[in-house]
Amino acid sequence: MRAAVVSKGEFQVEDLPAPVPGPGQVLISVTRCGICGSDLHARVHCDELADLAAATGYDRFMRSDQRIVMGHEFTGDIIEYGPGTRRRWKPGTPVVALPILRAGRQPELTGLSVYAPGGYAEQVVVQESMTFPVPNGLSPDHAALTEPMAVAWHAVRKSRITKGQTAFVIGCGPIGLAVVTMLKAAGVRTVVASDLSPRRRELAAACGADVVVDPGVESPWDATPKKSRITGASDILNLGFDAMDRLRRLPNIPWWYLFRALHTLDRGPSAPVVFECVGVPGIIDQILTAAPPLTRVIVVGVCMQQDAFHPATAINKEIELRFVLGYNPGEFRDTLHLIADGKVDPSPLITGTVGLEGIPTAFTTLASPNHHAKILIDPQSPRTAP
């Protein structure tokens, strides 16, 4: 098969032996594969990423001196099954799969490990138990976006945001755009998107953002039509006084049960939910400084450098800081069906397609935020530029 192989940061299209599915695995013919922002980082910073992965318990991440076939946002058609499979679907069935394999008890990250070549190729091996048929005749272009949209769906679910809370999406690259899309799919009524790039702001509006802000001109916190009643520590304290004044007027009522119930239900005064989708040093501290009290911050952007912020700022405002990674199989499956059922439209994210020979140009183009968001790879396409 033909595949784009990267080593020491350079891509080369080569003829490789066709992969052979192992026990519990399936071989598929790749029809589309997305280029992820993490691929852009891994091409040049994989050794640093490998050290970080090893520190957290995974020591098989790609290294710069290895020959790697990248790509973990793929869809394709079933070719053949390996031993020990249930052969659930006929050959030719279009499928998507979580980009992870397992040999024995050893997991491998597809497209990010030398032991699990990815979708920048004509064929890729997937795990049958992590594979899902593509429903409703969904196009390969849209099916390939299941993986990045699942990342966004996981972030939205972890945020526990309600429909009435205001969502702020800081950074409108591909993952920020996906978060905007999934927030609207979840029924969130007010989504404020912020990015310096005019092109990304245009795409954020196309994805459903209710308010789009250039942070170089206007603060996103001032742009929301629904102003927070809580803007400082004094407001929190006064809220407590006001609540107790009202509750004390009710005779023989165990008011403390109300506070226990609110805690159990994870409910309290309405506050914004912020999705940090930039992933550069200093952004978290900027958000903690500017966001109103009781804000919940979901860190989706992957910052590759050490960062610093002032914990006392977050403490004084009682801001929650949550970090998210990936998704679970249920979220992956649900995302696929949200797209196939027309409840989620990922098409605004797709801004170009290339063949295997066009991958270097696509990577160079994606380094700039002014033109493209998600570029797809069609292994059969002759296109060398998006």
From TrEMBL:
UniProt entry tagged with the keyword Oxidoreductase: yes
One Gene Ontology MF term: oxidoreductase activity
Domain Enoyl reductase (ER) span(s) in chain numbering: 4-377
InterPro entries named in the record: ADH-like_C, ADH-like_N, ER, GroES-like_sf, NAD(P)-bd_dom_sf
Superkingdom of origin: Bacteria
Family matches, as Pfam families: ADH_N, ADH_zinc_N
SMART domains linked to this entry: PKS_ER (SM00829)
Keywords, sorted A to Z: Oxidoreductase
PANTHER family for this protein: ZINC-TYPE ALCOHOL DEHYDROGENASE-LIKE PROTEIN C1198.01 (PTHR43189:SF1), ZINC-TYPE ALCOHOL DEHYDROGENASE-LIKE PROTEIN C1198.01-RELATED (PTHR43189)
Official protein name in the record: Alcohol dehydrogenase
Organism from which the protein derives: Nocardia yunnanensis
Organism classification: Bacteria, Bacillati, Actinomycetota, Actinomycetes, Mycobacteriales
